[in-house]
Amino acid sequence: MAQKIVIDPLTRIEGHLRIEVEVENGVVKDARSAGMMFRGIEPLMTGRDPRDASYVTERICGVCAGSHGWASSIALDGAFGVNLPPGGRIIRNLILGAQWLHDHPLHFYHLSALDYLDVMAVAKYKGNDVGLNAVKAKIMALVNAGDTAPLTPRYKPDEFSVNDPELVTMAVSHYLQALDMQAKAKKMSAIFAGKQPHQSSIVVGGVTMLPTMGDVDKYASMLEEQIDFIENVYLKDVVTFGTGPLLPLATAGVGGGNGNYMSYGGFEVDNSGSLFFQPGIVMNNDFANPQKIDASKITEDVKWSWYKSASHLQPMVGQTVADVDKAAAYTFLKAPRYNGQAMEVGPMARMLIEGNETLMGLVKKYNIKPGAVARHAARAIECAKLAVAMRGWVDDLKSEMGKGLRIHDTDHWEPPTTGEGVAMIEAPRGSLGHWISIKDQKTANYQMVVPSTWNFSPMDDKDQRGPVEFALIGTPVPDPENPTNVARVVRSYDPCISCAVHLIEPKTNKILKFQIG
Length: 517
Ligand code: NFE
Ligand code: MG
Hints:
By secondary structure, the protein is an alpha+beta fold. Helices cover 39% and strands 14% of the residues. It has 15 helices and 14 strands. The chain has helices spanning 42-45, 53-58, 65-80, 86-112, 130-144, 165-193, 213-242, 247-252, 347-353, 357-366, 372-402, 451-455, 467-472, 484-491, 497-500; strands at 3-7, 17-24, 27-35, 202-203, 206-207, 261-263, 266-268, 275-277, 280-282, 298-301, 335-338, 418-427, 430-439, 442-449. It is globular and about 65 Å long. The two termini are 20 Å apart. NI-FE active center binds at residues 14, 61, 63-64, 67-68, 427-429, 432, 450-452, 496, 498-499.
């Protein structure tokens, strides 16, 4: 008989996620992913000055906030008829690029690594490395004091857990180093962003920060420190673990999805619209025949979501009216679909769509299949690729400064009487869209479809499962008390449920309390 396991809330993610799985004969047979906190932004935008969007939408989330500021500004650029000057474009890229360098290592070290490490192996470290012995002493002092958060609570180590004392102690030391590097990446972004998190520089028309050569040099030297860490620590660790102790998980493809991948493409790298991340659609693992994105094929279903507004709407005319009493529903996430299909978005989708050589090299050499481990590898690989590309963007900025830097199109600052704008970009967790329609110079409708809504969506109107629900099916759970593999699969998508559920009870603005059985 199937046994039901509920993980609620799943920790070490952003937001409130409930995962339910049914396990039979040690394998997941069915799964549900549910966003459990009712909050949000979309209806809040209605009737406001459209220029509020970049500040208001950033408050969705404390992690990828800048991505929403960027997306909302791009949507407004379109609606206002902005001609984005090169300086505005490049500085936006540098603000967001640094944000990604913060985001990806955070996910690996602080949110995910504990799924794979038997941290107590540090007690058995016998080497002579002074730094690693200091880490051992630090961890053992915490253990002896009974003060082990945030390393606990966690599931018990299992057959896939890494327990080599040398490897584990090194990984824990990198966990600590990554904390420092994250702080530096945020400071780097803030050079052009005014502040972080919740940057204040990106607005419709460009950016508000006119940098000096000193600012640019400071950013450039901080970038070199990030590149050194990403190439020699982060990427190295991911490859060492993924092709070493975690290779059985990687070759088994635990957590592989439904074979549908999507990227809107992102980071404009020149004035003719060339993109750093390639846009594209792959259906059913048919990599030989990638398709172009057709935005008109994006819809959101709500049959299984706590909404009473119409289902299967395109985002420009999307609605978000809550119904917490809807009996069959199980989540506050809507179910976005492309041409009626559930799509995986994020680093692995991006790297597979572009046929990234480093990832493909590892896949072929070690017979790795798409799944949880491959997602970590893709994330680290794209992080390194992005960091190196940012060197060129710094040079582009210097060259623009030599020509008289233009950072903002001030001719298009006032909202149009009517207009529509769309932004389809890539955020760290995947494809992010903002849609705005303007009437009487005010926001008439604002809709966002974010990466984690794609990945963590529930079933749609045709009862097809969302990407993570599908990926969980087949996951081995030998011990129902210890569903470590379920957590590994779910976390490999880097869930952000505060972004994914982004509406609020429109009459009261209250967060609703409820229980489901
Ligand atoms: Ni709140 Fe996000 C990213 C966006 S949601 S973290 O990346 O947009 O998946
Ligand atoms: Mg939405």
